[in-house]
Amino acid sequence: MNKKSVLGLLLFSCAVIVAMFLGTKLMIGKQPEPDYNQNMSENSDEVTRPTHEEDKDSQNQTLDYVTEDEWYYSDTTNDVIEDTEDEVDNNEQTEPSDIEDSNTADITEDTEDAIEDSEASNSADNEETPADIEEAENENNTELSDSNSDNVDEEDTTDTLGGSVVDLPDMQLISDSNQVDYMKHIPDMVFDSKIEVALDIDNPVLDIKAKSAILFDAKTGEVIYYKDPVIPVFPASTSKLLTALVALDWCMEEEQVTTGNELDLVATDSTLARLKKGQMLTVRNLLEGMLVPSGNDAAYVIAAHVGRKSLKNENASLKEAIPEFVRLMNDKAKSLGAVNSNFKTPDGYDAIGQYTTAFDMGLVGMAAADNETILEICNKSKARNVFVDGFDVTWSNTNSLIVKESGRYYPYCLGLKTGTSTMAGRCLISVAKKDDKQVVSVVMNSDAVGRWEDSTKLLKYGLEN
């Protein structure tokens, strides 16, 4: 074989090797890459699907706006956001350790709304987170309190879920509603002539999701609309309006109070104003802590203080003072004409034998709307308070209808109170005013989105007709 043939064979071999190499690369390059997005979506139900209906509603919330089911804390060195949806599974709402050492805080709970529809145990407003976790209103038993859980919003908080509580005689708080035949303890509702006359109207047809609802003309007391207004429902944190009315019957706003062991009575999953034992503050501070972030702790401090005043015994035990305050609540409700209600707790936390109706809560709501102090407090989207001892705190409201950033804002709404619990569902009592018209709406046992839509629909109808 001559040199030319050998050289040609070598060149041919090199060309074959190069061609095989390039072919292999080409074949490898054409293999389909794994579809990571598809894999993620296949598992997305496990990772991203909201546990609660209210979680969907909370997607439009801003970080500094929470409801009764969520709270937000900040100072010069720390920013902590805690969402009670993460706490719903273990039915416990914890408190960051840095709050203990801080002298300033921005706390919100609503709730009326991140956990919005499930609030799966008891909760005492209990929204209410602010925006729509509302309401933890983390509104009494909850979202969820708001709270708690009108926190949490809606948070709409809730406003609490079922958690450990220190029981008092006859209160019979419920930490697990699945183990209680709740309805067995509720009597037949009274349908007397006053109620019959009040409901004798040409009732308009409105699409309301709530199980029970009513709309009043706040100036005349006349019923404008109703839906099953005399069936038993559960108040959750809406009952804090009654607590506030009793407190103002007995106390001056500037009256000073020192917090104590009554804080131990608050369920661990409640929507809170984050009060600490030994703090000195005023009745006005307590009212704002109860009505704005739907703080169950503030409700119990008020109850202990007023109960002892009623007993004329500053040293009365909690087992004496709290039931005394609850007695005052029921007396006040009856004085307003609420004949189908029985309140067992100052914060609205679900309890055996506690019930009300939309009609009765409308009467309470009209009394609250007629109280200048309560109306002023409930109209605040945020409430900064400096306690007597110098502690500086800012709370955010569990009521999305009065918070411009919430996406639920209704400009004519002047406030009032959220409520959320396992038994109560999502509740909201609202007052709105336009020109010379003022109306009060009550929505009981709606869902995460429904309580806002129902309330807005009722308020609009009342103001425009």
Primary descriptors:
465 residues, alpha+beta, Beta-lactamase, five-stranded antiparallel sheet, three-stranded mixed sheet, 13 helices, 30% helix, elongated
Q: CATH superfamily, please?
A: DD-peptidase/beta-lactamase superfamily
Largest sheet: 5 strands, antiparallel
Question: What is the string of SSEs from the N terminus onward?
Answer: HHHHEEHEHEEHEEHHHHHEEEEEH
CATH topology: the name is: Beta-lactamase
Uncertain runs: 30-166
- Strand proportion: 15-25%
* Secondary structure: helix percent: 25-40%
Tally the beta strands.
Answer: 12
Task: Provide the CATH architecture.
Answer: 3-Layer(aba) Sandwich
Task: Work out the count of structural domains.
Answer: 1
> In the CATH hierarchy, what is the class?
Alpha Beta
What is the gyration radius calculated from CA atoms? 28 Å
The chain-level structural class is alpha+beta
Read across the widest sheet, the strand sequence of neighbours is 5-4-12-11-10
Shape: elongated
N-end to C-end Cα span: 110 Å
User: What is the number of helical segments per DSSP (H or I, 4+ residues)?
Assistant: 13
Mean pLDDT: 76
